[in-house]
Amino acid sequence: MIAEPSPAPDTSQKENDGQEATAPASAVQNGGCVKNPSNLTPKERRKVREQYENVRKKNILRRKRSSQPESIEDEVEEMVEAVTLFEVVSLGKRAMQSVVDDWIEAYKEDRDLALLDLINFFIQCSGCQGMVTAEMYQSLHSSDILKKMIEKFDEETGLQYKRIMARPWILTVTWPMELEDEGYPLVKAGPHWKKFKANFCEFTAVLIQQCQYSILYDGYLMNTITSLLSGLTGSVVRAFRHTSTFAAMKLVTALVSVIQNLDVSIHNAQQLYEVEKNRTPEGETGPRLDELDRKRKECQQKPVEIENMMNALFKGTFVQRYRDIIPEIRIVCIEEMGSWLKLYPNMFLNDSYLKYVGWMLYDKSRIVSMTTDKEPEVAVEAMKLVMLMVLHCENTVSSEECEAMYHFVYATYRPLAVVAGELLCKRLFCLPPGEEEAPHSQKNSKFVYSLSRLKKLITFFLNHGFHKHVTYLVDSLWDWEDGLLRDWECLTNLLRDKPMRKEEAFTDAQESVLVEIIAAAVRQTAEGHPPVGRGGRKVLTAKERRTQMEECARMTERFIVVLPELLAKYSSDIEKVTNFLQIPQYYNLNVYVTGRLEKYLDALLKEMKELVHRHTDLNILEACSKVYSILCNEQLTIYPIVSEALRQLIDDLVDDFSQLLDDFFQEEEGFGVNEEHIFRMSCTLKKLTAFHNAHDLTGWHIGDRTLKILNFEKENGGLPAETLIPALQCSYFALLWKLELATESLVAETPPSQEALSELKEQMTCFRLICESYLNHHNKDVNEKAFILLCDLLIVLSHQGVDEDEDFALLKFLPDHDLQSRMIEFVKDHVFGENNLPEEMNREEAHRLDSIYRKRIILAEYCKLIAYNVVEMMTAVEIYKHYMQTYHDFGDIIKETINRTRHNDRIESARTLIVCLQELYQNHMATYCSNNSRKKQIDSSASFASIKELARRFSLTFGWDQMNSRESIAMIHKEGIDFAFHGDSQDIDYYLPPNLTFLAIISEFSNKLLKPDKKLVYYYLQEFVTDHMLLTCKGEKWHPLYCYRSSLIGTDDDAESTIASSFREWPPPDRSKVFATKRKFSDGNIVDISLPGSSRQPTDLQSDSQLSYFSWKSKTMHSEENTGGEASPAVQDKTLRMGDSPDILPEGQTEDLSEDIDVLETDEGNL
Fold it and tell me: Where is the signal peptide (predicted)?
């Protein structure tokens, strides 16, 4: 609310007296006028404060009405009478031009009153709910005026005062300080405030547009607005700064539009003047020519005035706020500056204004650092800005910073990687100054040009190999490489042809990278989506799909011809051959027939056969096996050719292996065979294993031969790991293929016979026993391989007979307790037992990472057994114990195991957590007692702190959904309390529970309890606190008890003297107000639980009144029993602890718990 100026006579009189001029209360619009705040007495200030509170309540009510849902918006707006300009604009019911026209008419009638309404509009747009007073300043000296331009806070009334100059007044704005935190219209969310912001922008634009023909140039309107907005921009209040800056920038934009219209008017006036002047005889003038000349000069003078207005607003607001601490204010300034540069470059495209843009861009290091922003969209925009600066502004970004930007081509977020790829292409492939691109019509020139660009790309990868995956580099450059990576002819010719000049030759490392680039480009062409880790599959349009298929066919035609030749040329290079063998999986295989290219298929099969016979590297063998698997598609025309070639290859390998194996067993049961013979047998077995993975070789009976080798090692030993590992793997593949064949026959309604299933079971049992025996093998690689295969086999066997025919139940097997113990001991020794060995710590980084990788595989295999209920869930306790020590290496696997087991059985999963903590605590106590360190507190050691931190981590795994974890958390507290108060006491304090400090550990789970559950847990805790404990619980040893109690009832008791009384602050309920719950046992029976009444007696720990994992009722339960009714009986303890006797609490110490306790219900099926 703003006060009007007082009548002229009174004002002039006060001006002559040099005093402040304030309007009387009768002249105030929508409120009252206040005195000078500095002259208020304390009593008057309190009265002012009350007035502001009333104003605040009225404004809040008005805001609530204005933010009603759209369905009743019209009804609410009918109730709100639009009185002020702010209300008219805020409601937005009238056309903005009509609103502005009405205001202009009011301005012409009484400009002071209209200006006060406009000033009030800007103040209210800032969200100010206070009061505004106005005083004339014409009689004041400049020094006096500056003294009045203050902004201060009155601590007594809690009001903020700000004085602003708005010629011809000095405005005093007063508002409650706490209103700053309520937000203001420009930043409030919701459709109403979004509409208001649009109306605000429209109002400022229409205001200038309509005033340009009348009052804009009167020297009064814009001076007042400029001084007002400039004063508000200097406020410490964010709402004033933001709103005034926003309004000023929009006004400048509107003035730019006006000056654009004036340019057209000046041009038209000048043309009319020139036409009329040409008609008039030379040396003569007429009235029309004089009139046109006058209008022309007026039009030429207006832009000068408009520019002065823009300069005043610019210097008063933009210059002050373009580096504001609030980013929204800085954004408004620089955003509008951009629009001015586009709309009116004649004025703004000069050093006076461009320097601000330069200053905003001057902090280049900040812009470069924003490419690593945690918000990926921000990082992308920052990368685009850096790219523009690099390409168009020389020496703005250093070469070191450019190198850092290049590494983003390996980023996981694909939009960021693509922008970095664009920057890399434009910088890497640009020609030196003065050098022109060779014409592509000349084949040789095109080849040289492509060779030059590829060398640059390969050199970049080798020199800046931040990431070793070429696939990500190719994906980043795919949209910007101008067809270089899809020029199959050029790429293959670089490898096929000999270089004409020595400088054109590739080194071996460069050739390897080029082959990787070709393989990645082929994959990108065929699949059309980013690699793994860069988002999902891209949905292609029909046109894009058609283009992709055409490109894939062109790629297939090229590599069908050249791939056999490349395999022959690089047959001795394992890395290159492995990459080349990845290409056929992306072929359009129909091209072999449609293009009549069968002869190249024969050449490919011949080369792969040579590779299989020549190499023993597992990568090449598996790649060849995969190519055969892709080509051996029964629906393809080429299937007979490939199938026959594969059969011949397997026959050769099996014949060689059989001959070597027979020779092995003929020489005195293998003891006379030399190492070379065993090596040849191992190599052949490795090849058969690679093919048995992807092909059914059951007809060759390879598994029977490998089992014979394994049994020989089991009985005699002496075979190397190079033979045993492929033998184990091949035997496992053979069993899986037999099981697959039996399953397929079942689907075909021709189930296998009992004899076949019995034979299969016998073979699986034999293999399982071999794996069990190999767990103790002296070779680490062998026993680890045996463990992995044993885990996989147990998962397969444990689920037989579930979905298939009941006959398959014959194959089902679950490990017994002895086998589970051996397996978990294996995990402890091979995963967690080597972490602290000196040789493990001193290994090189590559060897250490390889060791961690192998350990992760072993741990993941066993955790799968836990997750699929193959072994007992309680065996996970031994794994959970190492969660903290191995969090960096295995934390993700252990956490996922906890989540999977919780999905299977919430209660049992929670029990494993509490048992894990109990065992760690017992180990800690054993160490504590053995060291006889009585002087040191139990809960102050590093070991205890690590257990407590582990409990906190376990608590975090339950997430935010307290309802789903309700039973589990309650069970943890129940088991923890039982453990804390039971056991053999070894402390000199007879009444101190043996494991009391364990309460500090389970207190980490208290924040996961619902409020009613905390009360139940607290009542359960009370049953263990005897009177003797209350009398003797002094000293730091009892600290865990009252800390745990505080975590349940939400208090913070530091003084140990309050421990005893604290248990009476929340006593058991009255006899007439017994709180009942229900508990679900494992047999499905629901038993009522009654909390103890006013008499506190020891509880039978095995009785139904224990706090077990509950299935609570979902309603608010009130006690409807008579006050004289009997209370539920307390259950007697079958062993009175430490000489305590049942006691009755005095009635005066009981507290009425008549408050409603919400007890939520969950279905038995849900819990």
Answer: none
Q: How far apart are CA 961 and CA 1112, in angstroms?
A: 16
| The token pair that represents 489 in the structure block | 């002819």
Q: Token pair for residue 415?
A: 């939009």
HSE at residue 192, side-chain half, CA atoms within 13 A, is 21
How far apart, in whole angstroms, are the C-alpha atoms of residue 733 and residue 467?
Answer: 35
Query: How far, in Å, CA of 596 to CA of 594, rounded?
Result: 6
- pTM here? 0.67
- Cβ atoms within 10 Å, residue 31: 19
Q: What is the CA radius of gyration of the chain?
A: 43
How long is the chain?
Answer: 1167
Residue 163 confidence class, pLDDT cut points 50, 70, 90: low
Q: With contact defined as beta carbons under 8 Å apart, do 1132 and 1097 qualify? A: yes
| Six token digits for residue 1043 | 């800390």
3-state secondary structure of 151: strand
Which is more confidently placed, 228 or 94? 228
Q: In what order do the strands lie in the sheet with 28-29?
A: 28-29, 2-3, 131-136, 169-176, 159-166, 151-154
The dihedral formed by the CA atoms of 504, 505, 510 and 515, expressed in degrees to the nearest 10: 100
What is the CA 540 to chain-centroid distance, rounded? 27
Contact 424, 411 (CB under 8 A): no
Pairing state of beta strands 1143-1144 and 1095-1096? antiparallel
Q: How open is the CA angle 801-806-808, to the nearest 5 degrees?
A: 50
SS3 call for 1078: strand
Mean pLDDT over all residues of the chain? 77
Say if residue 69's pLDDT is above 80.
no
Q: For the chain, what percentages of helix, strand and coil (3-state, to nearest 5) are there?
A: 65, 5, 30
Express each pLDDT in 833-844 by its tens digit.
Answer: 865 555 555 567
* Beta carbons of 960 and 930 less than 8 angstroms apart: no
Identify the residue whose tokens are 């470059």.
345
Average pLDDT over residues 1146-1150: 36
